[in-house]
Amino acid sequence: MTPTTQTDRIENEVLIRAAPDRVWRALTDHKEFGTWFRAELSEPFAAGKTVNVRITHPGYEHVRFDMFVERIEPQSYFAYRWHPYAIDPKIDYSKEPTTLVEFRLETVPEGTRLTVVESGFDRLPAGRRDEAFRMNSRGWEGQIQNVKQHVGG
Questions:
Q1: With b meaning 16 or more CB within 10 Å and e meaning fewer, what string describes 56-70?
Q2: CATH number for the domain that contains residue 10
Q3: Range of the domain at 123
Q4: How far is residue 137's CA from residue 2's CA, in Å, rounded to a whole number?
């Protein structure tokens, strides 16, 4: 895994020893996504649609948020927008800008190279920016490993 961070962008890359179609299914099938992400998703992913999410990870069961699916390019690219680290149920995050989460798959001799990028942190309100960036940096480091474990690669 190779993490790259700046102030606006988190980038993680991992080699998964599994076929791209297996990794793709783990990312874009809403039930599989929910398994490794530790969440329940309201419906399948479709470009232009919003999916409601409830976290199932112990201690975060109160967290609910929406994911707006930006783009799906089969077997290679999946992107959605969300409000990063929006965990306080007393705060209305809907007026804040969202960040863009992108998953890119590349076929390599060993299997699949998965790159996950979340960008747009510099547009967040100053009072939330640093914490959202820090928490999501840690979160993606763990989630990329969850995907790898989920597909057995």
A1: eeeeeeebebbbebb
A2: 3.30.530.20
A3: 4-151
A4: 12
DSSP alpha helices (H): ranges in the chain? 20-28, 30-37, 126-151
Confidence of residue 7 (pLDDT cuts 50, 70, 90): confident
pTM as predicted: 0.94
Q: How many domains is the chain partitioned into structurally? A: 1
CA 111: distance to chain centroid? 21
Question: Which tokens hold the place of 112?
Answer: 């699949």
SS3 18: coil
The reported pLDDT for the residue numbered 21 is 97
- Read off the tokens for 121: 């942190």
Burial code (b: 16+ CB inside 10 Å, e: under 16) for 5-36 equals eeeebbbbbbbbebebebbbebbbebebbbeb
Give yes or no for residue 2 having a pLDDT over 90: no
Beta strands (DSSP E) in the chain are 4-5, 9-16, 39-41, 50-55, 64-73, 77-82, 99-108, 111-119
